[in-house]
Specification:
By secondary structure, the chain is α/β, with parallel strands linked by helices. Helix content is 39%, strand content 16%. The protein contains four helices and four strands; from the N terminus they run βαβαβαβα. The protein has a four-stranded parallel sheet. β1, α1 and β2 form a beta-alpha-beta unit. The longest helix has 27 residues. The chain is globular, with a radius of gyration of 14 Å. The two termini are 14 Å apart. The model has no long low-confidence stretch (mean pLDDT 92).
């Protein structure tokens, strides 16, 4: 088997969207890749992100919120930014990394009742899951 690929998912605070993507890519890529997630800031992993992923059978409760500079020495094959802010503030990565971008809504900014907020987290989770499945099929099949 060839060397594992390194995949970085980058967001603003590494608390929601990047954590969701990290969970799904880890699940779908298995031994094919090392998946990392980071932020241009660190806000801690959002408990609602953990909850909605558990509802879909993915445990991200052990994840940590990491700063992108912690991975400065990792030779990434893919860097996926999941919000416009991260793409604009993203540090420069070696040109060998394939840069991908999709701006997902930020569920941490959701308002409303507890159930309405959770439903917004679930909606973003489902969008992220679809993107992760498409990414896996396109680049790892």
């Amino acid at each position: 088997m060839p060397d594992k690929k390194n995949v970085l998912v980058l967001c603003t605070g590494n608390s929601c969207r990047s954590q969701l993507m990290h969970g799904y890519l880890t699940q779908s890529l298995g031994e094919q890749a090392n998946v990392y997630s980071a932020g241009i800031e660190t806000h801690g992993v959002n408990p609602k992100a953990i909850q909605v992923m558990q509802e879909d059978g993915v445990d991200i409760s052990h994840h940590t919120s990491n700063h992108v500079y912690e991975y400065a020495a990792v030779p990434f094959d893919y860097v996926i930014t999941v919000c416009d802010n991260a793409r604009e503030a993203c540090p420069v990565f070696p040109s060998s990394a394939t840069m991908l971008h999709h701006n997902f809504p930020d569920p941490a900014k959701a308002t409303g009742t507890h159930d309405e907020i959770l439903n917004q987290f679930r909606a973003v989770r489902d969008q992220v899951k679809t993107y992760a499945q498409d990414f896996t099929q396109r680049y790892f099949s």
